[in-house]
Write a structure and sequence with these properties.
Length: 186
Amino acid sequence: DTIDGIWTQLIDNSGTASTYCVRRASGTSLGTAALSSGEALDVLEKVYAQSTNLLKAVPTNKKAFYVTGSIWDNYYNSLAAVGAVTEQAYTALVKGMPMLTYKGISVIPVRVWDTDLADTDNPLNATTAHLVLYTTKDNHRIGVESSSDLNKVEGFYSRVDRKYLFSGDMKFGYTYLHCDLQTIAY
């Protein structure tokens, strides 16, 4: 799954020192407690600031912050507010913001990570509830054991459930192309 594939590999190859290829932003040990008000904004800045110049040089429309829903919600709440706030912040609360960006870079919630982290069988369950991955959109790849596996998908329509069902027997793998094009926080 996403945690055993992507995150286990990222964490195993990360560190705060410049000798690590995948950077873990220092000062971002997020743990399992609820985020404090505005904490996601602080984490996004640390992740951005501590990323490589190579990643910063990539055009903003070709990279993104992939985050858990908890990070996205906390960041959203930092931008939208009630009470004695700016008109723009109040309008954001009332009308919503369909897409969030930080320094022009998309902030994309991956809510399945929240679900996976809440699973007690998950290896990260006891250590973190919040994840941030800053990378290029094309840096992550999924592969199959054999290209012929792509043709081994069967499907049919179930009249009882009124659904299309598909079945396949493939072995999937995950990798990233360039380890220095990603910075993480967890």
